[in-house]
Each structure stands twice: as structure tokens, then as C-alpha cells.
Specification:
Blueprint (H helix, E strand, L loop, with lengths): L6 E8 L3 E3 L19 H6 L1 E7 H9 L10 E5 L11 E4 L3 H10 L4 E6 L1 H9 L5 E7 L7 E2 L5 E3 L2 E8 L5 E7 L5 E3 L5
Length: 189
């Protein structure tokens, strides 16, 4: 559909597929960055809405970023948080599928699925994630929080773009090929 707002995950992973250490630390991202900051400014201009999970929001607030994305509509998915640390942040308790459908009907730019792993899994499983823009940082951290919460899942992706940066990081842009992810609970096989 022309003009359809896309829900796009934009973020970084270690080479071994983690978005953070087990304690939520992203210290491994503190490194010299190439000129242009991996295209973040251009991506930021392409979105007007940010969606994140409660754990990611808690991390942002703890680090002094209660207004996670200044100038953008910001939504936090939560089952437990009763009030946001900023009046510019809206809390969401509705089903991800219904929420995404409602957002897509509104006029606007694309929507940034900021994270984390559980949120991204929920949007994938209901067929509401359109693209991934992954920055693969050339380091391994051994263990941590995976890009997507683990469960048995098959999601076909189509590579749209790849770019190597001077610091040996890669930006991979994928479209989700199919709608709803094929996922199931594994039983005894």
C-alpha cells in the first residue's frame, strides 16, 4: 500500500547477536564512531513516532533520558508502569497488533521500534514489523540480551541494503518478507 507507515527496528547488535549485556549495559557501544554517526540523523528525520518496551524505557530514564525521543510521539509498552517519567511519553497496554494497526492509520512518518527484545518479538509475531536496520558492531560480548526474544520462530528477510563503515561496522537493512512470523512452542519431537 503506497504511503503506508512502516514499523522499523533500528539498532545495534554485537557480532554474536546481542543488543546489551545481561545487566542491560551497552558499554561495548562506547567507541569512536565514523563521521555521520552511521546515518542516525537521517533515520531520525524519517520517523515521527517511537515505540519501546518498559525495560528499555527504564534504562533510558535511569540514564537521564525520560523524554527518550525529543520531538517525536513516544509510546512505552508496559503491563506494570503506571506513570511515565515524562508527560510527553504515553503508556500502552493494548495488544501490539491493534496498536500497530491504529498507528498505521494515522498520517505521519515511519515508526521506530526502538526495542527491546520482547517488544520486537511481539511485533514480529503479530506481523507488524516491516524492516530491520541493524548495525553490527565488530565485537563479541559472549552473552547478553538477544536482538529478539527467543522462541521457535521462522521469519524470512530480504536484504535491501548493506554498508561497511571505516570502523568495520556493518549496516544491514532487511525487509520482513512475510507477514506474521511462523512461531510455535516446541514440544517433544
Amino acid at each position: 500500500m503506497a504511503g503506508k507507515r512502516k514499523l522499523i527496528f533500528y539498532g545495534a547488535t554485537s557480532v554474536d547477536g546481542f543488543i546489551a549485556r545481561l545487566d542491560g549495559s551497552v558499554d561495548w557501544l562506547d567507541r569512536p564512531q565514523p563521521k555521520g554517526d552511521y546515518g542516525m540523523a537521517a533515520f531520525y528525520r524519517s520517523v515521527d513516532t517511537v515505540v519501546l518496551g518498559r525495560k528499555t524505557y527504564d534504562f533510558a530514564v535511569k540514564h537521564g533520558m525520560a523524554d527518550v525521543a525529543p520531538g517525536k510521539k513516544t509510546y512505552v509498552f508496559t503491563r506494570t508502569l503506571k506513570t511515565a517519567a515524562s508527560p510527553r511519553v504515553s503508556l500502552v497496554t493494548e495488544d501490539p497488533n491493534a496498536f500497530a494497526e491504529r498507528l498505521r492509520k494515522e498520517k505521519g512518518k515511519n515508526i521506530w521500534l526502538m526495542g527491546g527484545a520482547e517488544l520486537l518479538a511481539s511485533f514480529l509475531d503479530c506481523g507488524q514489523a516491516d524492516e530491520f536496520i541493524l548495525h553490527v558492531i565488530p565485537t563479541m560480548i559472549g552473552e547478553g540480551i538477544p536482538l529478539v526474544a527467543p522462541r521457535h520462530r521462522d521469519v524470512a528477510l530480504k536484504l535491501l541494503e548493506n554498508k561497511k563503515f571505516p570502523d568495520d561496522s556493518l549496516r544491514l537493512r532487511y525487509a520482513v518478507r512475510s507477514g506474521k512470523a511462523r512461531s510455535s512452542v516446541r514440544g517433544d519431537e
